[in-house]
Structures
1.
Amino acid sequence: MAVYSSLEIANKDDSCEEDDGRPKRTGTIWTCNAHIITGVIGSGILSLAWSTAQLGWIAGPISMVSFAIVTYVSASLLSDCYRSPDPVTGIRNYTYVDAVNAILGPKRSWLCYYLQYLSMFGGCVAYVITASISIGAIHRSNCYHKQGHEAPCVFGDTFYMLLFGAIQVVFSQIPNFHHMEWLSIVAAIMSFTYATIGFSLGFFRVIENGSIMGSLGGVPQATTAQKFWKICQAVGDIAFAYPYTGILLEIQDTLPSPPAENKTMKEASKIAISVTTFFYLFCGCFGYAAFGNQTPGNLLTGFGFYEPYWLIDLANVCIIVHLVGGYQVFSQPVFAFIEGWLEEKFPDSEFINRSYTVKVPFFPTHLNLSLLKLRARTLYVVLTTIVAMTFPYFNQVLGVLGTLSFWPLTIYFPVQMYFVQLKVEAWTQKWIILQIFSIVCFFVSTVALIGCFQGIISAKLE
């Protein structure tokens, strides 16, 4: 739920308000694409070469295309739920949970609460891990350049996680989604930049090698069980890399109408997922083609590439800048929910309602600071940083986060809401197709989740 202080709303005249009393929505299909790409192309893209290596040349690309199709279908179903009961003229549902509550009822909305915010919290944890790896990679890249590739350039990630957490404490004071279009645009540009660098380095390594490495079956393992667990982790990593349903309705809430918000959102999803899939396939396939069975878990920080070191540094700087924005895309809905709940629970509290407008030099928007936001958001950043420091396992953590939320948030709730919203009767052709779609996705995500948990346990015991 997007939250605005009484001061913000009081300063708006009628001409600057929507029919629901909220500030005029100024989003476009392009800012929508920026939000989606910022939320989707993140830490997940860096693991796709490793995922392709585990699955092989047939299953790897097919898996990425399949998840792209699943994500688009899910996004299309969910975008029709922004308004209910009619997808064009109904009442707005500002968040995913609002939609579940309005269409499916309060009982299932509580399950959605926990899953959605757990998914967003987990996404922020993954971003802390990835950012620390990229900061450390810049340090190691310069060390290898100066001392040689065999030098013991090993540094701990704890300090880098704390540094990224400190940066997020500052950026977390951005009031809400409607004030961070500029950050999403910058982050989206960074996404394109480091993704382009990643697949370009892979492409030129393939040219340098003079051959395409890898095999149809992927990296061999000592036992069938080990191979199975690696496949599960790879599927989990791909599952983490695509869906953005947890933030889709918050993004859609930035769009004005006409045209109808669901129409714009579907078009934006089509463009964003197509662009994303293009980069995913290039990064995953060229990374695997370049390194074969030696493909690193993180394409730009695993040091399959050492030179040119300045280009590796540039790519990692772009990753870090992007992750600053990506962290905010996933955390702003959590902030809005916590603060909205507290404002509703304690409407007369001076601690909660008093705010101060601050202009920060070189910052493109005024910050609306309050003791509630400062303390609650800082505590949230601290918690994500602590969890990241406790479980700093890149591929395994991405896999668990991807599979844990994939089926319920990306498949189950959108399908069930679609049935109710469009009054789809049981045992009709459409009902049967979507139910089969849901069951298959449930089976895949369950098996992958088990494998990813096994990966984390194994890594923790090593």
2.
Amino acid sequence: MTSNNTCSRSYNFKFCLDRHGIRQIRTAWADGPEFVTQCPIRPGMSYTYRFTIQGQEGTLWWHAHSSWLRATVYGALIIHPTEGSSYPFPMPKRETPILLGEWWDANPIDVVRQATRTGAAPNISDAYTINGQPGDLYNCSSQDTTIVPIDSGETHLLRVINAALNQPLFLKVANHRFTVVGADASYLKPFTTSVIVLGPGQTTDVLITGDQPPSRYYMAGTAYASAPNAPFDNTTTTAILEYKSAPCPAKNGLSIKPVMPSLPAFNDTATVTAFTKKFRSPRKVEVPTEIDESLFFTVGLGLNNCPKNFNSNQCQGPNGTRFTASMNNVSFVLPSNFSLLQAHHQGIPGVFTTDFPANPPLKFDYTGNVSRSLWQPVPGTKVYKLKYGSRVQIVLQDTSIFTPENHPIHIHGYDFYIVAEGFGNFNPKTDTSKFNLVDPPLRNTVGVPVGGWAVIRFVADNPGVWLMHCHLDVHITWGLATAFLVENGVGELEALEAPPLDLPPC
């Protein structure tokens, strides 16, 4: 399947578009993150993304990958089975994308600019949305609440996408259960649950059956906020699962109030853990067992001391500091004159270095009381180089620098197997026994547990420069990212394609 998507300028902003989770085999020029694989599209210009979807099936999505434009520029990207084949589960009667979003009563670019200017945390959102509508529980939007139709006895496939900028979200439907069948465009061993949770960037395919008395039932989304004492949007977005045979709400003045589900507490990490532990691939998979690159990346927040030439209004973080974030104590800085991929392909010096550390520069008690001397990372545009075909393992370790938090870590251009997750500091002597090397789930975004760790594995078989970042946009704004430079292999089929003629100039 080949797709051409044209990305154009909107609202006077320079613009880039990412098809989140598409492997982009040899077509890194079509990946989308600004200043990584392309420079932004200039006013009045356009760029056509050309790529071929290979071996992927299920629910992905597309979104702006420029500053915080993702807040309102996103949509579902659904890859159906090839003609003549079908789903590995009973064919549903109907399908509906469910896009969970986050809304500010302000221009989101102004929100992030203010945070960048002050060094403080950005203002929290004013609402969450389901398919663009906040729902009945907000004063402004009850007339436009999203309706999801269902009928008695029929099965409905919901393709759930968390497009929120900064918030993992729980989702429940009153009196109904989900059967989870896929995530991030990969099928799973089906399992049932009353609640699902998605970090920003993640997708989950679920079946829901009309097995309750015909009526109206709320579908409700609310925050999973794992960082202790951090402010968050504590509102609830709703849609309505409505049976077609239910009495008409407006008939004869009858008003049927939908049934509301009981939602988890905002900090219910136990429910999140129980949910993610159920994820399994449908059958035995080929997980890399011999490892060429064993990497250990710490992820988390930090605080920069106020620069001497800044005034107090520019240092409104805790105790007169500025918020930052990092991997392995490096706070990632995007280039501004060339994209990383162009600099790599054209051999342009001075844009990036290849000395991103394979391990933290200093070992410490990552989830304990961290010395304040470790709170300030080093800014840099550092990438990690991988040989084509190398077998990679990454331990992603959350830290309690400033605060522990669940971090949804996404790698562009790759799917990976999540072979284990746990809490506390990863211990290679004891935790390797927990690795699932038989049927781990294949994902493109992993939620690193709050105060814990996750281990992923993949084969570096896609040449190019690929961003790896936290999908909480405030964290990538602060530098919680790095990139992999995957070298060409042997021959044309293992090499990056030439850049397209209409690639945006820098």
3.
Amino acid sequence: MLKQFLSRFPRKSSKSDSGDSAGSNSGNNSVVSGNGIQRTNSTNAVSGRSNVVKRMSSAVFPSSVVAGIEPLLSFKDVPNPEKQNLLISKLNLCCVVFDFNDPNNNAAEKDLKRQTLIELVDFVASGSARFTEPVIAAICKMSAINLFRVFPPNYRSNSSGGENDDDEPMFDPAWSHLQLVYDLLLRFITSSSLDAKVAKKHVDHSFILKLLDLFDSDDPRERDCLKTILHRIYGKFMVHRPFVRKAVSNIFYRFVFETERHNGIAELLEIFGSVISGFALPLKEEHKMFLWRALIPLHKPKSVGLYLQQLSYCIAQFIEKDPKLVSSVIRGLLKYWPVTSSQKEVMFLGEMEEILEATNMVEFQKIMVPLFRRIGSCLNSSHFQVAERALFLWNNDHIVSLIAHNRQVILPLIYPALEKNTQGHWNQAVLNLTLNVRKMFSEMDNELVLSYQGKFEDEAAKLKTVADKRRVIWEQLENIASFQPVTGNTAVMVTP
């Protein structure tokens, strides 16, 4: 049967034809149409297209490694026993990589490769493919050759830490091919007929590491595809899960403590948001270490705003799994609390509110003293948005309930800040919110508020007395110095 099938192909009659690896001649031409690669027996086919195929020498499209299998054949024109060989042949044909910086260079070859990729995607999606080990090896090889590459240095303005959201995303000119390769890889990974035990030999640690390196791509479309593929690999290859977690942790460490430059942190966190929700209880020590050493330090970089939503979700998943982690998380936030960035401080206060909303009384009491010392300093911030966001915490009923049960401890920590605001904060909105918070405390425990108001006034009077004494002493020193001017190197002794 195979000999009969192969006998349909014309023999190469001359040396001039030996370089025609596309397998086309005047008697049996291959043409490319919008619906894929089709065969025609007409000797009067369009000469322009057939000549294009002829010009594709073995230097551009290597011959199939499967002897006698023509890669430009359509799957529907091949009997079932030969489809696997044709699949490998087409995969090898797609191992050729083109330069897309010049759209006019190798235009016909690029179009042929794209049509072949579309045909491969359709064939795998149809469920007809049997993923034997040679097929798995060919798919992984083709994916690696097309996808794994070194990105050029990015000299754009993200040297400031990625705070410039106005930067336009950079799109890869080769995306018309890359998208199809990603689609093929995704359908391959998610196929129910793929045996993970066989595939793990080729989708190995090296393959995963190179896949993770691609998350630094400037093209958001590529990062989105990678996010889906890595998530499916994590779900399918259980043996690789610890390695994936360790490799992603290393990316986070390098980003936080070395470069502060990476384009795919948000996508990686989005994957782990789903992974964390699947952790079994009680949480392993390895998972807690991932929280403390990888996730919490991600609050440190200047560009935290680019991925804070995904980071907050991951931390919320941990707290939902184990509420006892709240105190550790809040201490971590206080450790990395911004000092000079008001924008980051507003974001931290927003995340703190989400965490406190999921905090029980026992855990709240463990961290309320350092927490409200920090909130007290935020209340007196000269940046009105920081002070306003801190005061908004009292709009949350759960947080107000926690504060009310611990008002004896919390009120002394923030009352001086409230009084300072009421005595003359420059922003009217902050002043009004401060008066509302004072009113809430008075409704909780008016006697407590009055007692601390008296203490505050006494302390203010003492401070005023000390300031007056200091002012008088300086005035005396200035008067003495004015009557005894110093000349030359004369030693001066000032007596009280």
4.
Amino acid sequence: MNYSSSRSFSSSSSAVPGTDPDEIDEIAVRTFDVYSSNTVKKKGNKGISIVWFRNDLRILDNEALLKAWVSSDSILPVYCVDPRLFHTTFHFGFPKTGALRAQFIMECLADLKKNLMKRGLNLLIRHGLPEQILPSLAKSFTAHTVYAQMETCSEELNVERLVSKALNQGSSNSPKLQLVWGSTMYHIDDLPFDTSSLPDVYTQFRKSVEAKCSIRRCVKIPKSLAPSPSVEDWGSVPTMDQLRLEPQKVDKGMKFLGGETAALNRVHEYFWKKVKRYEKERQANDSTYWVLFELIWRDYFRFLSIKCGNSLFRLGGPRNVKQTWSQDPKLFESWRDGTTGYPLIDANMKELSTTGFMSNRGRQIVCSFLVRDMGIDWRMGAEWFETCLLDYDPCSNYGNWTYGAGVGNDPREDRYFSIPKQAQNYDSEGEYVAYWLPELKRLQKDMRHFPGKLYIDQVVPLKFGNPNKFQGKASSSVRPTKGFRR
């Protein structure tokens, strides 16, 4: 992917998806219709079950939602605005959820609530700890089960344990917490190995699942999820003021809209409008394969989080690598704020802080610079990404950072990204850096990445890479390489 060829550099922000507003609902309705059914039958228990929405703020292909509907007369969808989500990160005290990510989550909640209401339900929104809210609701509604999507990392697992323990206090007929797998393309039960035996090398994992596994079909959700339980106050989506966060307007770059409706439109836009009409009407080739390749990476990191446990978050990583890291605050702040003196790094970091987004390639480059050239503790970078990224996921984020820092379970992933080479390959005209750093627009294109005294001083020298070697050369086409996978 070339930075310059894949983006339109307008002075204002561009909505993502960029679908015409009149088309958005139409595309969502068509997609919902394909993956919904009128023939799903209820069976088993009567009464009410609770669906606890967590990081799965969608209706389509939501097996926890389906299981709850099939097993009950009615279901109560619940989202808990957990204050712990808005505390600080574990080691360095950054905001755990920054303003842009919080706004994105609230947009997802609003869309989920709207889509549930279209199907005869609603979303009960409560502020507080799930381990207090859910048992109280289960008692009030005499719910027999709380269904939720299974998570894999320690903070989420701890909340699951607290909820389960609180539900089970009482009689033998206490409601149970039933967790349902639903966060990967390849189902955990279909893997050709136990997660404890997960290959340490991604390529081995990919080849194994491609050869021995098939991707399950999407579960079809009933077109009507009614009846709804009688609830006096369903609650509303929190405002930024209620979250004690300052709203942040995206006035430049790509403005991603949160929610399932937007996601369905983005998929439609990406495949049918941007990838050459999905390679001439679904003809597979290298371009379309890379989408699958990246999704398998995402699966791998999810399964890896089960195998590695908390070592994914420790300084030495899964391999317990002994290395001395700096936590120099000034150096880190120059990286965080996009003032390192290296335009490619600075542009990416400014895009992140402005929009909550950074390309896969950008994530690899800024990670390499932080840990290789600056020698900064990789966890500082990982926690800052946790603050900012709209698409933050603990498995992919920390899995990628351990790989980028050379402490991941695959020692071959100890890689260095040369800024001069990356600049030449992906932004040879300097359009991307000039967009995010307007002071570079007046410079000749071959000077924009290494403008010398015409830009701010470089905070550290590069360990590898001669800037002059790559200037003035034509851009080459380079395939994606292993790195940050979302």
